[in-house]
Batch of 2 targets.
Target 1
Amino acid sequence: PGLSNRIAAGEVVERPASVVKELIENSIDAQATHIRVAVEEAGMKTIRVVDDGTGMDREDAQLALRRHATSKIASERDLFRIRTLGFRGEALPSIAAVSKLVLKTRRREDDAGTEIRAEGGTIVSTAEVGMAPGTDIFVEELFFNTPARLKYIKSLHTEGAHVVDAVTRAALAHPEVAFTLSADGRPVATTPGDGRLLHAVAALYGRDLAEKCIPVEERGLDLRVWGLAGLPEIHRAGRGHVMFFVNGRPVRNPALTRAVLDVYAGRLPIHRNPVVFLHLELDPGLVDPNVHPAKLDVRFSEERDVAGAVERALGRVLDRARA
Ligand code: ADP
Ligand code: MG
């Protein structure tokens, strides 16, 4: 694991929140139902992600730390076609390259788990370990060997906010998974994992906000839009949140955001922002896969149609709520 690995790592691992995001995605890919995230000093000191997913055997665990050792065989073009979030086998080796990492993992069918310690991408020990089924990844001293990267790290306050944001987006993308986040030993957020987006929103933003959200559900020929739309009245207090999830993946898209703002424009007091959590499910062929995998941006081949569907779905429920 030389310099090129550490440079490549910068693409995936920009800050503590990128580590959290990648580890969570792996847990989700491993069919976890509970994911626990704990950070110290906004993740700059330690990051731990524990799941109850499939786990790995010893050989796969060692392989997972090597570059391009994905078990999710797929090409980059398949980014949105495949069901899994990861696809290139780059996250774990990239994280390992710039930290001190302890990977513990056990498959349900095995009696014992495997513990692998790595420093700066080099495996320093492999041992058997007793543990519950699942995977437990501990990342310490992020960027200890890349001082240049450290310079880009903002305040712990900013980094902590990014960590919360990453967990929040993942929890809203996957209401069927129970998440907990703690920071410096204190609980920050917990979602029930009962499959209800409304319950995840209530857990993350409070019941007051959740109670002022109404369900959106619209099925088109090749597009399903579902989620929650905040009533305009909630926006008198607090800030807005507009979030989109495409085929289970948190995304950003200016045309969709514009569509939401347009729908709310005539309904909200000036300078207020809407609260909207929308899942879009569509044929992966209609999603432009030409986006950076670590970034959130997404494009659609029929962007106007998708934005139009979002506008109609939202407009309809808001009109109904007012009537
Ligand atoms: P990718 O997700 O693109 O396949 P990663 O570097 O993120 O690449 O992970 C490498 C491999 O390690 C995965 O393909 C998967 O087989 C395994 N893996 C990583 N995290 C977990 C986990 N939490 N549970 C089970 N397997 C995991
Ligand atoms: Mg991955």
Target 2
Amino acid sequence: MAQLELDGLVKTFSDGSDEVVAVDTVNMSLNDGEFLVLVGPSGCGKSTTLRMVAGLETATEGDILIGDESVIGKEPRERDIAMVFQNYALYPHMTAKENMSFGLKMTTDLDTEAIEQRVAETAEMMGIKDLLDDPPKELSGGQQQRVALGRAIVRDPAVFLMDEPLSNLDAKLRTKMRTELKRLQNELDVTTIYVTHDQTEAMTMGDRIAILDDGVLQQVGTPLECYHRPANRFVAGFIGSPSMNFIQAAVEDGSLVHREFTYALSAETAAQLDGYEDVVLGVRPEDIQLSTATGPEQTVTATVDVVEPLGDLFHVYVTIDGKQYTVTVEDGADLRNGLTVGLKFPEDTIHLFDSATGTAIK
Ligand code: ATP
């Protein structure tokens, strides 16, 4: 167990004459035993960050500390970390048991009996006791991932690094393994960075999540902090499903003015917009109140485009001034395409962003 700190971490790759900044001055501090999910779109630098911590990639600048000790310059095997990959990376010619024991034989001075015992205990914990003599090709994807996790756990490292470990599993198994992995990590209490591009995985698994875009860390916070108080428009759009709706509006006399509506703000919110000529209004699909009544008590009138029933909920796609927005409602059975509806944006749920920088104002 250990704290983990990334201090001004930079990675640039030379691509012919071009230089790609894959990771741009990332600062991050994980508490002992914390499960931090590093999330962001494809190509934002998640894997590169993780690979630098693992020692598989050299940092261009910055420091990485495990406990109080810098691991820059240390070989991967000297870093007391265990990594789990998306493609499991099991040795094909070894049985599950040999896969799990191999790292221990190479990096510890435990004797054969002690190794056997640790592998057996871990296999029991992972529910793979009966698979120990099988080679990877005889195991299903889910079983292979259990062996890969078992191989990481058995080493009892200071830090776990996981790079999209559930991506190759089907949706149902992924949800099951998500819960299991979270429970295991809780039990083992090992400091963990878990990389994913899937915001649902991030929201459900992370003690905290770190959101990366274009190599730059956008926000680090608990899932609910990032959901309720996104630091900027990128985080607001990335966290939450379906995504937050954004509407550009002018600021005039304490109101947001759009071609289709004028939204009178409270004095308190209006004061926050002092000096702004325009802003981006953000409103989550689940925060919009939709009604078939239209009138002055509604924020805006919209036309229903498509209604998607999900069982417990409906996603309703509506058009305002030629642009499509999403609304989530519980009761959408009577909604039809082409219907005119009223939408209300309760002020305590709206977000406001600087239209130039994207920084959150409210
Ligand atoms: P994904 O989810 O698609 O794996 P990611 O967020 O993990 O994406 P990285 O793989 O870390 O992103 O890549 C970050 C950026 O660095 C990308 O622009 C990528 O093209 C670039 N990059 C990564 N590895 C190299 C390399 N070895 N040489 C040159 N560029 C690289």
